[in-house]
Give the backbone structure.
Amino acid sequence: MNIKTQIVVAVIVILAFFYLGAMVRKNKIEIKYALPWGFMGCVILILDFFPGIIEEMAKISGVGVPINFIFFLGFCFLLALTFTLSVLVSDLSQKTKTLTQKIGILEEKLESKEKTEKHD
């Protein structure tokens, strides 16, 4: 990788860090969801500054072309992120269902209490 490409990648990642930080400060994203993106940015910066690492990792894993190994790592990251978000959505869905049921029970109790008060 030539130096110009390394500089462009580094600038993009650093700008993404600033954007991510602004999103956290504005409460647009929670820190627990921003951390994986920050971690991935750090990994990208390390691999950008030391491109020999990715070549060595590709050789060790048996991948012929280092760029294919980068795509593989990106795919693994996105797969893990998608799975994590699916678990979170499922959890929130269950909590919403439970909350809706509890609200329904409370509304029913309130209505029955209002009816008994009217009859008294």
